[in-house]
Amino acid sequence: MSELPDWVPSGVDVSVPNAARIHDYALGGHHNFAIDREFWRRAETLTPEARPIAYARRGFLGRAVRWLAGRGVRQFLDIGSGLPTLGNVHEVAGDADPAARVVYVDNDPVAVVQSRALLESEPRARAVEGDLRRPEDILYHPEVLELLDFSEPVAVLMLDVLHFLADLERPGEIVRRLGEACVSGSYLVVSHPAPDQGRAFAPPLPGEAVTVARDAAEIAALLDGLALVPPGVVPATDWHPEPLTGETSLPAILVAVARKS
Ligand SMILES: C[S@@+](CC[C@H](N)C(=O)[O-])C[C@H]1O[C@@H](n2cnc3c(N)ncnc32)[C@H](O)[C@@H]1O
């Protein structure tokens, strides 16, 4: 095999496609390998709208983080983050205020080890391994507590990750526990595949279990007890769209931002 770029930590098997790197490629990033690109191309032939969906989600991430930064939020906990490349939270939040702090959490050790390498020179961002199914492990993770102060508002991002949790795993309860850990003025941010649109990717990405699509009412129920920021649960493209981007509405991904009062 040819020599690997220096951002690849030792021990990462680049002959196996990886979901986080596939997403990076879908978004036009460069932290991926031939095996990831090949996987994405196959997925795209089966689901041609897969790339617009990936862009719609990333566009929402940028608008939501800018919106939150505009309301004074300076701390971000991004759970199910994938790889922090192109237009990710620390870049957007850092543009608004270089003092903003971001912790990325993923349960995929490959994504975490690569994320750590990418964030090496970022004192205000780091990546830790954690599973959304065990929110306390994330909330009390020493590296999370080192960077984030839960006595100040925090934005907890769960972008395209809650669909990995079956209803039996009680995602609403998990979201409630995360909300309870945050002070008034904090926000929870969600993006979620909608039903009847197919999965954004077919077949499932490597390592993906069966996923659960949810409609707007089900997503609102996950955020029960918090105040939905207008316009509520809407397609990603319709949440505070920026003028002149010309994005057409894509109902495949629903999003919401909710505030703890
Ligand atoms: C579809 S990608 C989304 C990446 C990013 N949030 C975005 O919107 O572009 C889902 C990510 O969630 C991670 N993930 C899946 N289940 C998880 C869990 N239970 N806890 C933490 N991360 C999880 C996957 O490893 C993957 O990196």
Summed up:
This protein is of the alpha/beta class. 34% of the residues lie in helices and 15% in strands.
Question: Any descriptors?
Answer:
binds S-adenosylmethionine; 15% strand; 9 helices; alpha/beta; Rossmann fold; 261 residues; eight-stranded mixed beta sheet
| Beta-strand proportion | 5-15%
Measured between the Cα atoms of the first and last residue, the distance is 54 Å
Biggest sheet overview: 8 strands, mixed
Q: Supply the CATH class.
A: Alpha Beta
The ligands bound in this entry are: S-adenosylmethionine
* Structural class determined from secondary elements: alpha/beta
Please compute the radius of gyration using only Cα atoms: 17 Å
The low-confidence runs, each spanning 5 or more residues with pLDDT under 50, are 198-202
| Strand segment count | 8
Quaternary state reads: single chain
Q: Looking at this structure, what is the CATH superfamily? A: Vaccinia Virus protein VP39
- The average pLDDT score comes to 90
Helix and strand pattern: HHHEHEHEHHEHEHEEE
CATH topology annotation: Rossmann fold
| CATH architecture assignment name | 3-Layer(aba) Sandwich
- Helix amount: 25-40%
Q: How many discrete domains?
A: 1
Number of helices: 9
Could you describe the 3D structure shown?
This protein is an alpha/beta fold and 261 residues long. It has one domain (49-259): Vaccinia Virus protein VP39 (Rossmann fold, 3-Layer(aba) Sandwich). It is built from 9 helices and 8 strands. It has helices at residues 19-26, 34-46, 50-70, 89-96, 109-118, 135-139, 142-147, 171-180, 216-222; strands spanning 75-79, 101-106, 125-129, 155-159, 187-193, 227-228, 234-235, 253-259. Strands 1, 2, 3, 4, 5, 6, 7 and 8 form an 8-stranded mixed sheet that branches. Strand 2, helix 5 (109-118) and strand 3 form a beta-alpha-beta unit. Helix 1 (19-26) packs across helix 2 (34-46) and helix 3 runs parallel beside helix 4. The N and C termini lie far apart (54 Å). Bound molecules: S-adenosylmethionine. S-adenosylmethionine binds at residues 19-20, 23, 57, 79-82, 106-108, 111, 131-133, 159-161, 164.
